[in-house]
Design brief:
By secondary structure, this protein is mostly helical. It is built from eight helices and no strands.
Length: 204
């Protein structure tokens, strides 16, 4: 449950934004030069890609906006399906349009937040799961040679969960008028990031 007074809600919003700002974000979405180790590499990989961060936070925000059970179901579906996509990447199973679909995930999920879309739960789940495959495949193909695949997967699933929780914390603020503005503005920013990667304005 969100806090029951605006002052506490503002503190929650500030803390959520602070968490996002403190993440080691870089516009170079998939660089892991010099990073070794399974869990460490897996954990930091989603946190060093603005395209990944945008989509994963959007899943949490959208789930919180849709309410239970979507608030918990979507952030569970994403990492589970992402792990499957990661396995495909580790096994070098080709998947076309990975980077394009990752960029599109930011656009689509960001716009779902902007327009406060309320599709049936199964539609939201399919959309989230579809994009999760491509995010996972990207993580899997970039598994460092020195990393253990299992601990790497555990690391990026945990990092993904933390990003979803940050999104949920922001999404819960829709209870207040100023919170709805903040949430939709964040969704718009996520969509812009997706467009940036899609059209090359932001280089990965």
């Amino acid at each position: 449950m969100p806090p029951q007074n605006p002052q506490a809600a503002r503190r929650l919003a500030f803390l959520s934004l602070l968490v996002l700002l403190l993440l080691p974000v870089t516009l170079h979405a998939h660089s892991e030069r010099g990073m070794v180790g399974g869990f460490q590499s897996g954990f930091f990989h989603p946190l060093t890609g603005l395209d990944h961060i945008a989509a994963m936070v959007a899943v949490g925000i959208w789930g919180a906006y849709l309410g239970a059970p979507a608030m918990w179901l979507l952030p569970v579906i994403f990492p589970v399906v992402m792990a499957f996509g990661g396995a495909l990447g580790i096994l070098k199973v080709p998947l076309p349009g990975v980077e394009t679909c990752i960029a599109l995930s930011g656009v689509a999920l960001g716009l779902m937040v902007v327009f406060a879309a309320r599709p049936p739960l199964w539609v939201a789940a399919v959309l989230v799961g579809f994009f999760a495959i491509f995010h996972g495949h990207s993580h899997g193909t970039e598994l460092p040679n020195s990393a253990n695949a299992m601990t790497y997967a555990i690391g990026f699933v945990i990092a993904t969960g933390l990003l979803h929780l940050s999104g949920i914390a922001l999404g819960l603020l829709v209870k207040w008028p100023w919170g709805r503005i903040l949430v939709r503005t964040t969704g718009g920013a996520i969509a812009v990031v997706g467009f940036g990667f899609l059209f090359g304005f932001i280089q990965g």
